[in-house]
What we know:
The structure holds two protein chains of two kinds. Chain A is an all-alpha fold.
Amino acid sequence: MQRLLALIVVLVLAGCATTQRTSFPPPEGPAPPETPRPERPERPQPPEPSEPSEPSEPSEPEEMPPRSAQQASSPAVLSLLNTADTLARNGNMDRAASVLERALSIEPRNPFIYQRLASVKLAEGKNDQAEAMARKSNSVAGDNPFVRADNWQLIAEARRSGGDRGGASEATGRARNYRTSSQQLMQ
Amino acid sequence: MAQKKRSTRSTGRRSGTKKPVNKRRGFFRRLLPYVFLLGCAAAVVLAGYMVYLDSAVRAQFEGLRWTLPAKVYASPLELYAGLGLSRSDISARLDRQGYRASSSLARAGSYHSSSNQLDIHTRAFTFWDGKQAAREIRLKFNGSGVSSLSTLDDKGDSALMRLDPLMIGSIYPKQGEDRILVKLGEVPPMLPAGLITVEDREFMTHWGVSLKSIARAAWANLRAGGVVQGGSTITQQLVKNFYLDNRQTLVRKGKEALMAILLDAHYSKPEILEAYLNEVYLGQDGSRAIHGFGLASYFYFQKPLEELQPQEIALLVAMVKGPSYYNQRRHPERAKRRRDLVLDMFHAAGFLEDEGWRQAKKAGLGVSAHSVRSTSQYPAFIDLVRRQLLGPYKDNDLTEEGLRIFTTLDPAVQAATEKRVAKGLDKVEAGRGIERNSLQSAAVVTSVEGGRVLALVGGRDAGFAGFNRALDARRPIGSLIKPVVYLTALAQPSKYNVITPVDDSALSVKLANGDTWRPQNYSKRTHGNAVPLHYALSHSYNLATARLALDVGIPNVIDTLKKLGYTGDPLSVPSLALGAVDMAPMQVAQIYNTLAAGGYYTPLLAIRDVTTRQGEPLSRYPLKIQRAIDEAPVYLTNWILQRVARFGTGASMYNMLDSSLNVAGKTGTTDELRDSWFAGFSANRLAVVWVGRDDNQPAQLTGATGALQLWAGIMDDIEPRGLLNVPPEDVIEIPLRMRFDPARGADDGAYRGRRDCRGTAPVPFVRDQVPDGLSDCDSDIMRENRYRRRQAPEQRKEDDRNWLQKLFG
């Protein structure tokens, strides 16, 4: 059970850290897949400089919410997220949390930071804190179905490992709904 | 032994100088064996005493363990592209931390500032999460702050950099010694060389005492026409500090000399010198004694010993003679004269070159103005730190083990808060004809997210370590409680929304004890029976609030209060609805922080981490959050609190604040204008301010005329970011025209519900609880409502229509 959790955490972290703009739209949502996939390169690749940065046209009706920490975070915060990811992968959860809190004091309303904190708390077996952090992430995520889908997935895991099966499947349902709407957004 | 020999010799000499009298000689001859025996006995006693002294000296020196008060650090400044601080903000912070403006960055702790650029050679520092090396970096600036950070050394790129944190104080016992240990090998060589030159030239060669030194000192003093050198060696001075009291008796002098010889016999010169560096007394800060050069360097110059310039080293060496006599703050001229004399001695001894010597003598004393109050700089905050530590740590852990405590204090926010409190009170007193210096105040500033306490002011004179009003002055909170009442109501979205009409007509309540409670509005007027709920809160109507609280039930209000983080147990009485509960500003800050954080409770923390003296992590105070209240009602409440700031009792804040800044807050005023409160927040800053009098006499101020004026000044100075108003998942916003004029009464149509969407403002509702017939602007929601109306019970539909008809005509 613990190992499964740790695996999920690492995948969520890795998934968040490495979702690249260049691979957009990806074949799948940013959710952790059921089976482990080969480790991706640790360092996120910066967006290619040659790529036209697509000036957001004013005529565009809706702005695409950020799908990954890359799109929503400053370089300072990204460097801390990378540090935290490395620490978390090495099982150094408390220090990872400490680094994430440092990131939070720079960007206190960045939902991706809370999401990672939720993963770290989940890996530490602190299910209540994991859920609280994921919900906090939701509360600062605005209308971002990508973030919310992942957060509800985390909440489902937290509830499952806390023994709340009903709550877990409800959360999974909400994750699925947000996943659907995020896929609609991408079409 | 030497003592013994000398005494026999002197006896002999004396006998030799006396007139030889036969009778007497016979007497002495007969006495001689006794004298000899006595001498032997004295020798034995003395030898025993020496053995005793020897073991005392060794025991103390070997088990040498200075008591090291815990050191308290402010939150480190993080530097990164995007940081909203100007070049002058950052260089002010550098100056405060003893960084030296310099044309070269050769040494850590220096910086170079040019038009749009700031180069910094940071200091190495061991943080709780590891060591950060000294780096050379370059910051570039644009209109909004730091635009880029690059590194100038070859240690690789970095997206952010922490400055070493400002040391803001120590936790020392009352009447205690404070010090920072240094190693001989790590101090600038000029310090030990200078000390030896000035205090004890024969130090490297004598045996602990030196007749030559005494003679030299006497000669030097004679030449200088005053006391410039003392006769006792460094070893003797150490012994005196270490083992003996301050009485100047001959016996004590003898004992001092003996112990000095023993110390010198047992320990190497470097060991003795290092102990001296750490032991010597160098000043007084209230009840705190400044010991050793390590702390003195911070105390006087706010920087580590290794960064001191020659004139600064000379000043510290000069002070050894008499830290209070040569106190550079009280007697700057006297101190400078002696410092220059010491510089001359450095120069004459050959370890200060001509050029450096001239430069040094030209320099001012350079004593940091910021450290004038030094540790007593932040007494209220240090008090909070100490209280938060005292659970897990025992008193002597804090005063003896040299722990390093990393706190959340933001020196810039603290400085702004102190300044705005002091100046704001002056201004309020002057503007309203209140007796000067009669008002007191306290303020708490937090980070909202994470619940970090950024600043704490315990009184008008923030440097004065007296009554900590921020933590201990419990006063009735008045209308500050109202948002809790409205939140309790809005948490029942099927019954209340932000435009639900509430009744502001006269009220009297029979109490359990037989009394009758008859609250009144501040204006003494009533406003009819259909005041929109948001309006009643933003204009702080007492009657409407009291009625609402009675409707939802006082116990439920108390329940909400506790969920928000209040730990007390208030009486469940109707007057609670109007703030009949005593709280300290810190407790209010906790409650409002939960509101500001969207219903997520985080215990307010002043400490982030504690490490040992060597930097090993001991305990961390991790971020803990708890979903205390549903986000939706909190969002609605905060929406109303923004209207308090824009249109309600708090509106005068925008005389000071930028009108584009969205903030939320609430005024509080108590009976007979005794207490004036304001609690409010932006996205990243929460501040609670109390103004009143220590004798609890009326302050003659409302929340708006007193505390709000200070609050707005503080908020303006601490880089607030506006509230964003992103509705949570189950809140939707309906565009409505917001018109209500209490003078015209409710029948006249509070809301002109036009069928177009011009001139409307988005009004938040809980998703499934939008009243029918509000507006045609959002057809989806209205369609949903029509559907719901078909399902809803008849009665409810009737109710809805009745009051909506009143509102929308």
